[in-house]
Design brief:
The protein is an alpha/beta fold. The chain has twelve helices and 13 strands. Strand 5, helix 6 and strand 6 form a beta-alpha-beta unit. Helix 3 packs parallel to helix 5, helix 5 packs parallel to helix 6 and helix 7 crosses helix 9. The structure holds NADP nicotinamide-adenine-dinucleotide phosphate (NAP). The site of NADP nicotinamide-adenine-dinucleotide phosphate has 29 residues, from helix 2 and strand 5.
Length: 316
């Protein structure tokens, strides 16, 4: 898919179009592509793309979907992305995060459809950090293990696919899907929250992630890429920067160690990833934290956050 293809508005299928990434992707791409968004439960209203309902956990659903919609590009954002839900429903986690991507990848390869598959920084155990695409994953927990199995199955069935390991934040349909929204919501309500000083990551604003993925499609990249911010920080620092941007009280954030946080689940303290491979392929540096957070704030000020929330169909 070249830049001239974008002039004639290619047909794009986005799965998970009610999720944090999928919805922002579908909304942002709708001006440049003819977008069909796939949702499962969440009903959308007034979105600038066609939305269809499909349960991708059903066998053959992914292949049937491609047959029915015949896109030129499919961006696969749907997943069972909630860690607790994966632990309590392991079969569904494996079906959604490993079997469905495998089926989609094979069907896309057969039909000559470009696939972008979304994976996660959580394929690493977070013991070392600064991971490159060459480093050996060691996933902890069912979410991470099923996501790694998904990316491996996609790579095998469809070598032309882009596999993007991500970590992102932004404005979501329910206002509750990202860590940035968590800090914004609680600090705005004057509530105390904890911020881990020893958990490091490279979160990227979801809208910047969409821009990068569209460039990767345009350049017809394939293979595995880390698509995160070029700059890492602790979760505590991330919260403080949000507080400062929105003029909220950062002393409401208690700096603590994850070890003191009373969490039962195994933690991955350092999920920082290198972005040199993608920077080289695109000929540009990936955004730093200042750029992403300033845009996050600007999207709030100019009404984008509220617009995203209004896409939720109210059940009466
Ligand atoms: N959020 C992060 O920071 C992060 C970090 C690393 C990787 N990722 C990856 O990024 C991708 C997108 O994550 P996200 O945070 O945007 O997820 P999300 O907000 O939880 O959204 C998940 C999406 O998947 C859909 N879905 C779930 N089960 C389905 C089913 N059986 N059939 C069809 N659709 C189904 C949901 O539809 P309904 O709403 O209609 O149920 C929703 O649109 C995932 O692959 C995730 O693993 C996310």
């Amino acid at each position: 898919m070249t830049s001239s293809d974008f002039v004639r508005r290619p047909r794009l299928l986005v799965t998970g179009a009610s999720g944090l990434l999928g919805l922002n992707f579908a909304v942002q791409a709708a001006g440049r592509c003819v977008v069909t968004g796939v949702v499962h439960h969440n009903e959308l209203a007034g979105v600038p793309f066609e939305a269809i309902q499909v349960d991708l956990a059903q066998p053959h659903a992914a292949a049937d979907l491609l047959e029915r919609t015949r896109p030129e590009v499919v961006v696969h954002c749907a997943a069972l992305a909630n860690l607790e839900a994966c632990e309590s429903q392991p079969e569904l986690a494996w079906q959604m995060n490993a079997a469905a991507p495998a089926e989609l990848a094979a069907a896309a390869a057969q039909a000559g459809i470009k696939l972008v598959h979304i994976s996660t920084d959580a394929v690493f155990d977070g013991q070392r950090g600064n991971y490159s695409e060459e480093d050996l994953p060691n996933p902890l927990g069912i979410y991470a293990r099923s996501k790694l199995a998904g990316e491996q199955a996609v790579a095998q069935a469809n070598p032309q696919a882009i596999i993007a390991r991500v970590n992102f934040y932004g404005w979501s349909l329910n206002g509750t899907r990202s860590l940035a929204e968590f800090f914004y919501r609680n600090l705005s309500a004057g509530k105390n929250v904890n911020g881990f000083t020893d958990v490091h990551f490279c979160p990227l604003l979801v809208n910047a992630l969409v821009d990068l993925l569209l460039k990767m499609i345009e350049k017809d990249l394939s293979g595995l890429y880390h698509v995160v911010s070029a700059e890492s920080l602790s979760k505590y620092e991330f919260g403080c920067r949000i507080a400062r941007l929105f003029n909220l009280d950062e002393t409401l954030i208690t700096p603590i160690s994850w070890r003191a946080g009373g969490l039962q689940a195994q933690r991955s303290p350092d999920l920082t990833m290198r972005t040199a491979k993608l920077a080289g392929a695109l000929g540009q540096n990936l955004p730093d934290q200042q750029a992403g957070l300033a845009r996050f704030h600007e999207l709030f000020v100019n009404g984008y956050a509220q617009k995203i929330r209004l896409f939720k169909r109210l059940v009466v």
